[in-house]
Amino acid sequence: PSPTHPHLGWRLLMMAVPRGKQLTGSGTRFSGAPLWRFTLRKEQQLQQQQANPGRLAEEVQVPEGFEPQSDGWHWNSQRSLFWQSRTQKYYLFCEANNSYLELDDEVSIDRDLKVFADASCINPQETPRQDRHVLIRDLRKAAQALKMPIDHFAKPAALFAVYTGHKATDLKDTGQASSCAEFCARNLHLKLLPRLAEFRGPWASEQVAEALRTSCEALDDEFLSSKAACADDGCSAAIALLLGQRLFTATLGDARALLTESALDDGTPPVALKSRAHTALLPEELSRIRAAGGSVTSNSQLVSPASDSPKACLHVTRALGDLSFKQREPAQDLHGNADEASKTERIVVATPDVEVTLLRPSHRFLLLASGQLLDSLSDDEILKNLQGRTRRPRMACGALLHATAERSGAAGLTAVCVVLEWQ
After folding, report:
1. What is the pTM of this model?
2. How far is C-alpha 192 from the geometric centre of its chain's CA atoms?
3. Which of 107, 132, 284, 410 is buried most deeply by CB count within 10 Å?
4. Are 186 and 237 contacting, i.e. CB atoms less than 8 angstroms apart?
5. What is the phi/psi pair of residue 30, to 5°?
6. 148-176 exposure pattern, b = at least 16 Cβ within 10 A, e = fewer
């Protein structure tokens, strides 16, 4: 036999072992302990677990933040989650049918889904840019660099955003870029990542959506209290958070999000998601503004409560920044005392609408853009442009922006295009 023959190798090994010695170690792939002992130990462990489940619950390490309840259940009041020691799973309690809903573990789909993203902007010469965009293609890597790991979330994980700056209509341009849009682009992820990193278990979609809402509100509060804030500086936002198969889109103001699907049998490419613009034209927004003591002009513009000028107006009802629309004197009661409840009421709020989409192979493109783009171009025009530039998201954005500028005359436009390529 040849030197590489398996039987010859075994004979040479046996010749090298002194008589009376036993072969052990990794070379024999056997530890020396009889297999029946392992089987017996496993059966004994199962019997002990069935006979004394309480002892098992004590031996299992309970996740941090969970307080013991009864029958092996543990409760986390901050996360509104249950954890069961027997199954070592997390649960949500459904009051509708009085039952526990198990939270599934995160499943990464980075082998099935490839994400390509890029952005483009157009701006008049010698005019400061009022818009900003954010492209974080690997959010887990960025979080690890910031020592806020989010490895408990599925891959791919990414964050994209467009911030469109604006000013009140009667205030002249100071020749400076929007400090609000710049501030938000630099700091949103610093508000969001600590919230996503604080709990390393499974997250329900509503909990992620709430983290997005509170991050935007905290970002707004920090900007309003900073030295960079001024009375007329604000921005709208369109944010996309991708975590595995779940896509979270958060929008406020007139920045918009559009998610498309593959073409139908008749050749018409459908729209899976299209966010709305927050203006006084929406009945619920108009009711909220009037309940907060705000006033609206005949052309649905908000009047600033902190300005004496009737021309100090704003075209959106939700935005980041815009101090003059959020800082006002509290209402007074019959005795002339300040109403504490009215201090927290704001005419313009920074709470975004958050939509959750479970991605599937039919989803193809995600567009985040200035509101003028979706108002000027039809869905069919947008989708045909995106389909013609599948692997060139930056060119697709540029073509859409130039078409919008030619049709509407709008200046200062920004768009982010995300291509979802399924393997």
Report:
1. 0.77
2. 8
3. 132
4. no
5. -150, 130
6. bebeebbbbbbbbbbbbbbbbeebeeeee
Read off the pLDDT band of 394 (50, 70, 90).
very high
How far apart are alpha carbons 36 and 115 in whole angstroms?
A: 51
Q: CA-CA-CA-CA torsion for 143, 145, 149, 155, nearest 10 degrees?
A: 60
Nearest to 294 by CA among 326, 321, 322, 339: 326
**What is the C-alpha separation between 68 and 14, in angstroms, rounded?**
58
Type of residue at 318: R
Residue whose C-alpha is closest to residue 354's, from 417, 283, 290, 275: 275
- Distance CA(81)–CA(284), nearest Å, equals 32
pLDDT at 8 (0 to 100) = 47
Report DSSP letters for 255-311, one per residue: -EEEEEE---TTS---EEEEPPP-STTSHHHHHHHHHTT--B-TTSPEEPTT-S-TT
To which H or E segment does residue 376 belong? helix 371-376
Give the max Cα distance, the chain: 108
Q: Which two tokens stand for residue 366?
A: 């995600």
What letter would DSSP give residue 368?
E
- Listed in sequence order, the DSSP H helices in 3-85 are 6-15, 35-51, 53-59
Q: How far apart are CA 315 and CA 303, in angstroms?
A: 9
R_g of the chain computed on alpha carbons: 29
Give start and end residues of each alpha helix (H) in 153-282: 179-197, 205-224
Asked whether residue 14 carries a pLDDT value surpassing 60, the answer given is no
Query: d(Cα 314, Cα 348) in Å, to the nearest integer?
Result: 9
Strand pairing of 67-68 and 302-303? unpaired
Q: Is 307 helix (H, G, I), strand (E, B) or coil?
A: coil
With beta carbons less than 8 A apart as the criterion, state whether 362 and 269 touch. no
DSSP string, 325-358: GT--PPPB-TTS-B-HHHHT--SSB-PPEEEEEE
pLDDT of residue 57: 47
Which pLDDT tens digit goes with each residue over 254-275? Answer: 999 999 988 666 555 588 899 9
